[in-house]
Amino acid sequence: MSKVKLEYIWLDGSQPMQGLRSKTKIMDSGFSGKLKDCPNWSFDGSSTQQAEGNSSDCVLKPVFICPDADRKNAFLVMCEVLNADGTPHESNGRATVQDKSDEFWFGFEQEYTIWNPETDLPVGFPANGYPAPQGPYYCGVGTGNAVGRELVEEHLDLCLEAGLNVEGINAEVMCGQWEFQIFAKGAESAGDQIWVARYLLERTAEKYGLSINWECKPVKGDWNGSGMHANFSNSELRTANSKEKFYEICEKFRDVVDEHIAVYGHDNDQRLTGLHETAAITDFSYGVSDRGASIRIPLYTVEHDWSGYLEDRRPNSAADPYKVAARIIKTVSS
Ligand code: ADP
Ligand code: MN
Ligand code: MN
Ligand code: MN
Fold first, then answer.
1. In this predicted model, what pLDDT tens digit does every residue of 181-197 receive, in sequence order?
2. Which atom of ligand 1 is found nearest the CA of 296?
3. Which of 12, 52, 94, 197 is the most exposed place for a label (fewest CB within 10 A)?
4. 131 and 35 both lie in a single domain
């Protein structure tokens, strides 16, 4: 019987976006595959910008486990980082989630750009100059239109085999830019699954000699930035049957624009310009089917007699889904 590999994954202390780290723990062949049987572990926080060298141990507490189909006898174990005394580390965004229930549902649309480290440009961009202007890439097909599909498909299969609740994928507006959507009940679960999917994407890209660029505006100029639209609902929204109720909840977001932007990803001023299907970073607006609004009321909601969900379009591709979800819950519950 073979021993089992557990890949412990955590978020480091890098700024402005936290990076992913992982290391392998070997378990006996009898390992159950259950979270409760994953012990806490530790790592050297002085090498991840999470501790000083003289007291460097940080604790890894497993929070989510799923199969790792790309490796024999293996699981992926998402962890949160604790201080040696068991309190949440300051880099621990998951700990900002107050609501541990699954009252709130989230659907994150994670956009990203597949990057060629040789040219330091998106895949499909010539080393000098630009590819054809935006137009054919969104949901495109054919060589030159859809670039990076092999990696995207491999990633999708790994996510599905891991049991992540991916709801769809699509090629995006910029050449080399793609999206996956993950839906989950509960903020922690949504965050766990997005981070594991990000991990699988970066790791799969290694095989192709490519990297993943999470920046919200990787190419300046007339090229779309990358978002992570946050679709959300609670039981009130799901059963509202009232336009007024939806407007009332949207209005709650008006006075806390800064608090939201603070956790919606760095450099968002470069993306939220009012162009390229965004609202300006300083504005707050909402509207039915309005892709130029801060919060879009999806057609689904209107067609279901004003019961359904909302889409906050402001979070960007580099945002921490734990912090985004935590902030939305706080505002809606206020
Ligand atoms: P678009 O690109 O048109 O903005 P997508 O289809 O990419 O929309 O994403 C919509 C997301 O909304 C999906 O991830 C879906 O799971 C999510 N969603 C649908 N219904 C709800 C709901 N009731 N609560 C939260 N999220 C929802
Ligand atoms: Mn989408
Ligand atoms: Mn999109
Ligand atoms: Mn969207």
1. 999 999 999 999 999 99
2. 4
3. 52
4. no
